[in-house]
Write a structure and sequence with these properties.
73% of the residues lie in helices and 3% in strands. It has a two-stranded parallel sheet. α1 packs parallel to α5.
Length: 279
């Protein structure tokens, strides 16, 4: 494999990679803590979690195989030339392994906490079943010729498709409820930061090598960053612009003031109709 030409760019590459790992890894915890605090998963779309688990599992298979397998690396060199660097970094492997673990924890929370009337849709179950059946068929097709690089391209394509699909149920759910309650925006802000850093890491590598082959050789990583930035921006608009959280005003019961007088007073202090909660 090729080596770095610039030490500053190599350091920038490592810094961006581990920054992306930190943001993306931490982004799982706000939702987990929110579910734990509420003892409820109402507001979190279950299809999102199931599709996310499939996405990260396929991404882990791709990253770990590309990073650790000498056979895969040999095929990559044959495809793109010995002058190209490996398009998968250690932070990619670490992130995908951590992501599988935390997504599994979130799925377990769905099983044990209050779900309301929510459930995993038959469509999501069908999609996941077709995806893994397709992956199994591709594995047996690649086995006779040892076409491991092609097989990893299949897994990379799966993770890109799952990345696109996983966000749609949550976006629709927020739209139908006209609310983002139960869906952690901290998760989205960290996810967005990680996506931008991940893309920046690829740009730095291309600048150093004077080649864009690392984008072609790992198009899944590039698409992951672009799709993440797009949907996270959309979720941020939903949370802060389209469906901002309504303020709840708490007042101490005053025997000398009627509830109607309290409402009038609060309406004078706010442009939005208040919700009055007598304590």
């Amino acid at each position: 494999m090729a080596s770095w030409n610039s030490v500053p760019l190599e350091l920038a590459y490592q810094a961006l990679g581990w920054f992306a790992f930190s943001c993306w890894s931490i982004s799982f915890y706000p939702q987990v803590f929110l579910n734990f605090r509420r003892k409820s998963v109402v507001g979190l779309n279950f299809d999102f979690v199931l599709l996310n688990l499939t996405k990260h599992s396929s991404y882990l298979i791709h990253n770990a195989s590309m990073y650790f397998s000498s056979a895969v690396q040999k095929q990559y060199i044959e495809e793109y030339g010995s002058g190209e660097m490996l398009p998968v970094a250690a932070n990619d492997v670490a992130f995908s392994a951590h992501a599988v673990l935390l997504t599994a924890v979130t799925l377990f929370q769905i099983l044990i906490y209050d779900r309301g009337t929510q459930k995993i849709s038959k469509l999501a179950i069908g999609i996941v079943s077709v995806v893994w059946l397709t992956a199994a068929v591709c594995f047996f097709l690649a086995l006779p010729t040892r076409s491991w690089l092609w097989l990893l391209t299949v897994f990379n394509t799966i993770q890109v498709c799952m990345t696109i699909l996983k966000y749609i149920p949550q976006a629709i759910m927020n739209f139908m409820r006209k609310s983002t309650d139960g869906f952690s925006i901290s998760n989205i802000l960290l996810d967005l930061s990680g996506g931008m850093a991940n893309y920046g890491q690829m740009v730095v590598q291309s600048m150093d090598q004077g080649s864009w082959n690392n984008f072609y050789g790992n198009i899944g990583k590039m698409m992951l960053s672009l799709v993440t930035v797009f949907f996270d921006t959309f979720f941020i608009c939903q949370h802060f612009v389209l469906y901002p959280a309504k303020k709840t005003y708490k007042t101490v019961a005053d025997p000398e003031k009627s509830e109607e007088e309290i409402k009038v007073h609060l309406m004078q202090c706010s442009d939005e109709p208040p919700v009055v909660a007598n304590v």
